[in-house]
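User: I'm curious whether this sequence folds into something compact or stays loose and floppy. Could you predict its structure so I can see for myself?
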Amino acid sequence: MKQILLKFQQEESNNNSITQYYQQMEFFHDAKAVRMRNAHEKYLMADEDEETVTQERNGSDKRARWTVEPVRGSFEVIRLKSCYGSYLTASNERFLLGATGRKVVLSKPSGLESSVEWEPVREGSKVKLKTRHGRFLRANGGLPPWRNSVTHNSHQSSNSSLWDVDVIEILVETTSPALALATTPPQHMRLSSPPMSKTTSEKSVEELANSQPKSEGWNS
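Assistant: Here's the prediction. I'll summarize afterward.
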């Protein structure tokens, strides 16, 4: 009986992990390119200097286009590549002396760096992008120099960290092993049946338990 309960608890845990994966990656799973729109109705934009990240209202500009790249070996993290071939990067440089926000820039890392990796975190119909260090992509408002700037901050409660994702190009079906490895949940998280509700799990446990032969010393 104990083994049966453990088995179903493990399956339910796996189902919850799968559900969370698809909720987090729903905005990017089939996307080849996206636009990111913030609470100020402005778009995440690669500046023409090919170093600065800013926000502007013209979403049709090519600089508002970000190519989605899955990170090999991690099914819940992505990279966003600008039209200049550089990546959205969470730098360690403070935006202003004494301020908690740090600069978000464009970079072309020579190797694999966590600073260009972002984890989507779903918030209703919107998404937050979280760095490997738990900070969030933020579109700043207000007066200069904050106006139109983009930073990453430890605070996540502000609407300035919420983004709408507009998919502008769909990923074509591919059999690439590298892509499959990067975007498919690990084997232990893949099940043939859809996630079961708690009620269904409990019923299944009860049915299996009742189907087991009772020993003479088993009190009913």
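Summary: The first helix runs from residue 2 to 25. Helices lie at 2-25, 177-183, 198-211.
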